[in-house]
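Q: What does the assembled structure look like for these inputs?
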Amino acid sequence: MNEATIKGSLLLSTLTFVERSSPGGAAARAKQFVHDACDSHVLLPSQWYPRTLLDGIVRMAEGAVPPGRSFSRRELGAFWSQNLLDGTYSTLKKDSPRAMVTTLPLLYSCLFMDLRMTARTEGLGAALFVLEGQGLVSGDLESHLGMTEGAISTTGAVEIQVDPGPPPRPGTLALRLKWGIGEAAASDHIPVRGEPDIAESRERVRRVARQMAFGTVDIVGLATCASELARNIVNYAGEGIIHVEETSRKGGRCIVIRAEDGGAGIPNLEQVLAGGHRSERGMGKGLIAIKRLSDEFDVRTAPVGGTTVEIIKYLRKF
Amino acid sequence: MDNSYAFGTIPIIRMGGVLLVPIQIPPSDSQAKCLLEDVLSTVSRGGARALIVDVSALEIIDSYLTRILYDLLDGSKKLGVEGGIVGIRPTVAITLVQMGLEAVPAKTFLSLDLALSHFEGPR
Amino acid sequence: MDEKTQGALEGLSATVSLFLQGDTDTRATESSPEPGIETLRTRLNALLDQASGDAENFHKINMSMADVLTDWYQTLKEVRGGNLNARVPAGEGDEFLDRMSEELNGTLATLQELQVESERRRIALIEQQSKIIEELSTPIIQVWDGVLALPVIGIVDSARAQEMMEKLLDRVVESQTRCVILDLTGVTVIDTKTADYLIKMVKAATLVGANCTVTGIGPTVAQTITRMGLDLQGVVTLRDLRDGLKRAFSDLGFEVRQKER
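A:
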């Protein structure tokens, strides 16, 4: 199977599916276009939205997008991983499927109108999108908005509004997307005094992670971190406490796990983290494992002050 | 060696010429020490051609547990008995790889059946 | 709101606008399949009939009529713009106008209910379709009993990579499939993250108990991997899917023979 065939067949099966579920001229026309264009470089990102994509392809077929303008896989891939809010997208997907559904037409507008888009989450339940492109200078804003607003849910669960104030840069448009915020932020504090608290820590961190709607693998990863942290406290300090908190940091919405103890500190911390120092009970491996499972990792240790290990895992990935 | 199961300890079950150790819950320090002693003394007594550790009941495997597995399997290997691990769950596998702890001291199997037939010796 | 409804509302508000500008013969003529809109259209036309037919009192009631019609126009515009909560203010004109406004509000309320429901259904359908699209673009193909193939197509972004890993491993364990072939024929360009994820996938599949081979590494990808200094130790790489299948058959104890004539 060559590349074009694979792409083409995937697209065709999707179009067939969409055609069956929403019969009409658009799907048939798009299908024809794909048949003709299979050898060109029309490429699809790995996740896409049939309805809007169809619209986009139809527009291409109708010549609304200049002929010869095609998107190489590189461009699309780059678009998706750089501009396309890799992390924000995942956050939205977890936080609010409705909000996610709302952004996709935005994204496709950008793609087919040659706009660049960046986005970042703003705390809980909000994200700021900045669109930029040649066609975006004043006057056309209404029509752009019209295009995106037309696809927006009107159930009130999601709100999209133009960001008030001057645009970040001339020729840009900033939109703020807000969605309903769920229950109050989760948090927990787990005293660790003995071996039974290790399992307890695992379970309670798991609970917070689940409440925050982390994926199954991430939940296991976080519970494993809790296990490592608790065990280190038990083995080296005897007693300590683990704080778990749902919050927002510079990277967005995240879980913060902080293990504190008043023990004797970790000697040779740098060596330990580099993997050079092997203590009898393998603490080095544990800390390194924790570091690899988290997005941000910080250790502070002193012979008198004890040790504090803090890890952060974002609800999205960079 | 008997097949009895003492509550709170980890059983060592003899199945033909194979020793099966199902780890249902993460063992405590003392349980882990006992297990290691029991397994190695059983193995050294001879008559077993393989040691299979079943971790399918474990939702979390941290570095401590990988250490236990290593001690069990590497120790047996040194005594001439091959080892196998059965039942590493998908999420656990991914986490182990993320942690960099994917080097296991034994062959891994999808199921106990497969592990047993792998170690089938001459009858 | 779907295009047809929007269009219909557009037509209605345009009619009112024209009427206010002096074209008293104008009526909303485009019928709509949507019962709510159709009722609105009839009501509006009735009101416009009343307004233009009453020539004698037209000038007298023209002011309040114009007000009401302006309200209607504004409300319809808002509704068209997506604010389904918009309603005509009632209790400001005479009895007839009031009644008309109330009925309009009633119609708008019904319209809102219908829209909310169809919106809900639309979102559900879209989510369902998205899932199917995802399935289509990360196919795990059972090429034989005990052999799964995962053709990797395109750039694997980090969010999808973990999902792919999970999905593959779940499938392997669930179906007890002992051989997995990760085919990279569809990958011409690879970045660090993707390569990293692919290697993780192979290692994780091995941990779970499957034999995992990687096939179809092209020269560009091979160069990139070497340049990145990635450790492919322990990962079995073969030239193409065919070789991968051969190896899988051998692992599973199958033998392929030509049928005797």
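Residues 95-137 of chain C form the longest helix (43 residues).
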